[in-house]
Amino acid sequence: MNPLVRQxxxxxxLFLVAGLAVIAxxxxxxxxxxxxxxxxxxxxxxxxxxxxxxWLQMNGDPQHSGNNTKETILGPSNVANLxxxxxxxxxxxxxxxxxxxxxxLTSVVTPSGTRDLLFSTTKAGTLVASDAETGALVWSQxxxxxxxxxxxxxxxxxxxxxxxxxxxxxxxYAHKHRVEDGAEIIDGVWPQLTSLKxxxxxxxxxxxxxxxxxxxxxxYVAHGGYRDDQGDYQGHVTAINLATGTQNVFNMxxxxxxVHFALAPATPNCxxxxxxxxxxxxxxxxxxxDRIYMASGNGPFDANTGGHNWxxxxxxLNPDGTGSGGGMPVDSYTPTEYDLLETNDQDLGSTGPAILxxxxxxxxxxxxxxxxxxxxxxxxxxxxxxxxSGQGGPGNVGGEIEIRLLANLIVTVPAVxxxxxxxxxxxxxxxxxxxxxxRLEFPAGVPSxxxxxxxxxxxxxxxxxxxxxxxANGTAIRALDPVxxxxxxxxxxxxxxxxxxxxxxxxxxxYITDDAGYLTAWALPPxxxxxxxxxxxxxxxxxxxxxxxxxxxRTITKTRTNxxxxxxxxxxxxxxxxxxxTPSRTPTAAIPTGTTTALPTPTVTPSxxxxxxxTDFRDVRxxxxxxxxxxxxxxxxxxxxxxxxxxxxxxxxxxxxxxxPATVDPDAVYGNVSLxxxxxxxxxxxKKGPGLLALFNGGAGKKGLAVVLNDSxxxxxxxxxxxDPATGLFTTLSTVSLGPNIxxxxxxxxxxxxxxxxxxxxxxxxxxxxxxxxxPDSPTGAQVGATLVFSGPRPSGVDATGEVGVxxxxxSCVVNSSATNFTIYP
Length: 826
Prior knowledge:
By secondary structure, the chain is mainly beta. The strands form 11 sheets. Strands 38, 39, 41, 46, 47, 48, 49 and 51 form an 8-stranded antiparallel beta sheet that branches. Strands 37-40-50-42-43-44-45 form a 7-stranded antiparallel beta sheet, with no helix packed on it. The two termini are 17 Å apart.
């Protein structure tokens, strides 16, 4: 039975009770200048009748407006009551981090029950589905970088039919997965080729989906280049018709060639370089003009003299990705100083155009469709999407309506908003130095951005939700009043460092991903249902009183900073996790052939995060030296304890997770897996330490992969090795020096990510120290030492699948290590 059954956090209370709760909240509100998370007494949150909604792509809609008008639970009246909900490490998230914003789908019928799901794409190309209420892993699907892709900053997108989610996978293809179980659709159409050279073409922007005026629905995948403008890339967009699978390609350089370019000297190719489409919002669709828009970074521009190169430009295309013919876009905007932008690496396309909703302040007869375009040159340009250069067609330069100069370069996605108080149109821009709010006005009948406030709150791309402005930086996430810029709420210390991540509000909860690979969430306190208990009242009393005993309608799983949500389960549902099948691809300049080769795998994994009970482990070696009880450090935590003497050659103590302890056979085997555990070393003498174990098999000649925290005086280390269960000896594969930083009787967190790709394996592991030395349930602090990374052939005897567990190791000493909080992320 899966213990992570989703519970609704919103209940319907009696009208009178709801009214009393609202009064209680309003009575406790502080001024916007001083309001924060600290409260002197519990605050009851009024019950709200909310309508669940989906969040299908970055910033919620094809315009990537960043304005969530569907949110009704979380708003200005209660945002000050937000509380930390959970923080979970996403599978493969620790490898490179998670840069894209999550997308969400409500009431998905999964094999483990009906859940609201969040979908995230890690920079390593793994698509992850998480329970939106608890953070628990529902499924994950890695996409090996088969053709040399290094990482992606993109976000996934959900099909409007709610059946499929699309993600980029580092291999030059867009992948299609079922939302309920992650199974990849592989046929003559999917996956879809989006790059023939992913080692140079990077998918930075979010995947986007739009339904055009024709009724056709398209998926858009934009490509740029990796950092430092290196390599053979031109910047291009692939538009895929989701009904037919046909696609069109438009290149920002050599746009007269409507193909995917090959790596030169192979053909077709383009001798020009750069002009990446690298803005986080990727491709924008506008339903008013029925066009898509995208902005290019620095690169050559010669379209004003009859050429086909569009560096530092904003282009408009038809919804199917085609232009006006001959490799020309439908329309374009290019600043007059395009050559200076190219020379100084001041990309216009550091962000995409933000479309401004129509304003009631516009003069009668105004027919323009306005957008703002930021840039690395610190300029915010106001342009008209119906005539982008003001000169009636593509290839012209200049023509912007207005330019505003800011203090910092703009690499974030603006958010737009309609103020419900007066219907006015606003745009919010957040930079590395300041936040800005502009209102669209029409002095003398001409559109203009009028600055309403500027704040020292800096950060990444902002989001509006139910008239609250959210933004985050590397230390804090904030909620602001969009009209005044005053802070309504803030939280720091929960999410990790940020690159281009942006917040998401989805059905009453606030989420953000970070560079350490975590998904963090905040929510309002659980609602209470007061139960009236009459008390004796003197006869004739004018006011009867009642004692109310609140009854919570939802229990929030205990969570910790930098710690995945732990939900104990002794017998996980052993549901076969769909494994992506790698197609046999013969890339061409157009659409892939679709030839597929099934690569079956015996990997069987539980369908959700597993936190085994300590009694659910099977001893493999030295069972008399492995016990379950209070940890050896005397702090009283339940733990698996390893004690015993070893010789000069070294030895290992091994215990593996057994999903059915009453049986003698292995009951769960894992291929790709993420493991975490808290470990402690009681005393130091010579070399020893605890660790994590993966891909373990106990047959003749079989081995497992282990990461071990080695306490060795002033030369401590963290190492990866192949362990032989027959001898207990290790063969070291990779080592990271930790100096003298591993202390006795201090709890440390170990993480281990394992990805198997054919005969190769990649292992990424980290060590963190807990904030409270004697408490493994305390938050984790900074990482200790560097990240351990190994990528290469699987060692002899290590299979592609195997059991997982914890172990200890020692050389010429007594081992005395403890392990607790062991968690499996299949």
